[in-house]
Amino acid sequence: MRKNASALKRSRQNLKRKIRNVSVKSELKTIEKRCINMIKAGNKDEAIEFFKFVAKKLDTAARKRIIHKNKAARKKSRLNVLLLK
Predict the structure, then answer these.
(1) Which pTM value belongs to this model?
(2) Most CB atoms within 10 A, among 23, 37, 38, 55?
(3) pLDDT given at position 18
(4) Do residues 35 and 54 touch, judged by C-beta distance below 8 A?
């Protein structure tokens, strides 16, 4: 890596973004699992309300380009299929 000021600053920025993105991705995985567990437990009403929260989080992550927009759409679709069964 080059040792000029702009390269060092870019490196610091990338590290900060990576840490933030990893925490958001981890949160997404956790809330998806919670939603799936609610559905499997048979709590349909709670699961529907929680699904709205999960969908909002996925859309936000996609808008901020933490995950791809098609990945967010795919995850919402799969959760919705589970809800409708």
Answers:
(1) 0.84
(2) 38
(3) 95
(4) yes
Tokens 């859309």 locate to 59
| C-beta of residue 76 within 8 angstroms of C-beta of residue 55 | yes
* Gap between the Cα atoms of 85 and 75, Å rounded: 16
DSSP output for the chain = ---SHHHHHHHHHHHHHHHHHHHHHHHHHHHHHHHHHHHHHT-HHHHHHHHHHHHHHHHHHHHTTSS-HHHHHHHHHHHHHHHH-
The model's pLDDT over 39-59, given as tens digits with 9 standing for 90+, comes to 999 989 999 999 999 999 999
Question: Is residue 11's pLDDT more than 90?
Answer: yes
pLDDT of residue 2: 74
